[in-house]
Amino acid sequence: MTETIRETSLAASVSRALEACGVTAEALGGEHEARSPLTGEVLLTVPTATAEDVTEAITKAHEAFLQWREVPAPVRGNVIKRWGELLTEHKEDLAILVQAEAGKITSEALGEVQEMIDICDFAVGQSRMLYGKTMPSERPGHRLQETWHPLGVVGVISAFNFPVAVYSWNTALALVCGDSVVWKPSGITVLSALGAHALLARAIRDTGAPADIHQLVIADRHASQAIIEDPRVALVSATGSVRLGQEIAPRIAARFGRALLELGGNNAAIVAPSADLDLALRGIVFAAVGTAGQRCTTMRRLIVHESIVDELTEKLVSAYGTLRIGDPTEPSTLVGPLINEKSFNDMQRALADARAQGGTVLTGGGRVLADERPDAYYVEPAIVRMPRQSEVVQDETFAPILYVLTYSDFPEAIALQNGVPQGLSSAIFTNDQAEAEKFISAAGSDCGIANVNIGTSGAEIGGAFGGEKETGGGRESGSDSWRVYMRQATNTINYSGELPLAQGVKFL
Ligand code: UN1
């Protein structure tokens, strides 16, 4: 009975939030089920796009691009400025959708929308800073410069775990850069997508930008093939598994399209003997357990100096014992559910493999709340002491498992940190400055993100985000990431009235 009331109220608050974001009835109803990992219940259904619909969305986006590319960049910034205002106004509404579909605790769901607002601010500023260089020409009366032009249609493929933030990094920058966007969200988080899309559609209307510069397609892998294959999609920005990247990257390359890939991570922190252990403890727990271990940046490996490993693991086990696991809408909860049953099974398989490979589970791993919520998958985050960096430690299991390894000298710690196929995020906890510098040096961490005295997750939008090796090499969000959304042209301008040739070549 209580459960029925609870379920009804979850669906009701989702409906209210959708309406507040401006999602209309025609965007709902259909065959695709939007489920909540909180309870396993179906919240609503939505219609899906066919392959023809996806191609039509690309056509519309391409036509809109032809107009949009001629709008001055700072004027394009107005759309994103307005989107940022609407996101601020509807922060809670969108966070309700993110929470209901991705299972995030309230603070992290609100944080995800804040990340969207932050990238909007950044992109508005960037719209006045699409700088090109001027280079001295070797010839008299000549000028050499580069200009940056809009690229075309950008296909954005996003994952369930950051259903709207990572998409917004791409979209806010792509739109100020003069591109149009076709967005294929994860099928698991379609309501969050509808909410974010409705707010952007309103920003587009309010600022008088071409209506079709943003297209949302809720489509399965098969129906959305055109995003990968269509030559009009100049850039495909995809977040997901290494397998997804392996499947799409060669096909995009075959048509000479651009790919921006943010794939798996297997992020580690080194804990050195000089580390402030209380600070390290807090950093580790947030990075290993936040979002129930379902961030690309989640800390999955801990590489601890042998002299402090017992003390640190003891502290960690007792900190894990205090974590409140359960309904993420409860203010005291820190660990919400896994996204679905498959994710739970993957976690159990990884734990069994870890044991078979000599690991000892120090805490966690079990399912909780199975009686109250039989269709939802809540788990105790696990800490597993491993004798070596064996196969299971090399894999990214998208669940809260922290493998603990030890080292005796610093080069060994770096070798362990770099000794996995993925290269997204990394961290060191140390008070030895030389060690910290070595860690972030060319011979240190091989990841796209290398932090000192802070965990692996929770990056700000101002830096470039992405990683090396199997992570795919892409960079999105801050710093110079905007450049991937534009094409560069080099211009040589001759005002000399003569025609001297470069490299001293004589001709005619
Ligand atoms: C992701 O998990 O794909 O650094 C993105 C973080 C967040 C973004 C994560 N700002 O953890």
TrEMBL record:
Enzyme Commission numbers on file: 1.2.1.3
What InterPro entries would the database entry show?
Ald_DH/histidinol_DH, Ald_DH_C, Ald_DH_CS_GLU, Ald_DH_N, Aldehyde_DH_dom, ALDH7A1-like
Broadest EC class assigned to this enzyme: oxidoreductase
- Lineage, top-rank taxon, reads Bacteria
Q: Which residues form the Aldehyde dehydrogenase domain?
A: 31-488
- Which portions of this protein are annotated as coiled-coil regions? none
For the keyword Chloroplast, the answer is no
Gene3D superfamilies listed in its UniProt record: Aldehyde Dehydrogenase, Chain A, domain 1, Aldehyde Dehydrogenase, Chain A, domain 2
The record's listing under PROSITE patterns reads:
ALDEHYDE_DEHYDR_GLU
Annotated GO molecular function terms are: aldehyde dehydrogenase (NAD+) activity
Catalytic residues, chain numbering? E262
UniProt keywords, alphabetically:
NAD, Oxidoreductase
**In its keyword annotation, does this UniProt entry include Chaperone?**
no
Q: Quaternary arrangement and interactors, per the entry?
A: Homotetramer.
Protein family: Belongs to the aldehyde dehydrogenase family.
Q: Which protein, by its recorded name, is this?
A: aldehyde dehydrogenase (NAD(+))
The organism is: Zafaria cholistanensis
